[in-house]
Amino acid sequence: MWSGTTQQNVGALEAQQGSEITANVCFFQPGVYDINRFKFVVNAGTPQEQHIYSPFQHFVRVASA
Fold first, then answer.
1. Is the Cα torsion angle 48, 40, 5, 32 positive or negative in sign?
2. From CA 21, how far away is CA 11, in angstroms rounded?
3. DSSP string covering 12-60, please?
4. Max CA distance (Å), the chain
5. d(CA 32, CA 24)
6. If we measure between CA atoms, which residue out of 57, 56, 61 comes closest to residue 33?
7. pLDDT of the chain along its 65 residues, tens only?
């Protein structure tokens, strides 16, 4: 379950400029979780927004305490 902010606005970026976003998640049971569905909404100054999904796999292994 995602906790805290699940949506963030970065604002305008210059060409080749990056931005870091922190996301928090809570796991209630041990296991391996695939959290690869990050979606980015890009507005490049046009009326139509672009929706870009992360192409990377993000596996998280959670061990019992």
1. positive
2. 12
3. ---TT-------EE--SSSEEEE----EEEE--SSSS-EEEE--S--EE
4. 49
5. 16
6. 61
7. 677 667 788 888 888 888 888 878 888 899 998 887 778 888 877 788 888 888 878 888 999 87
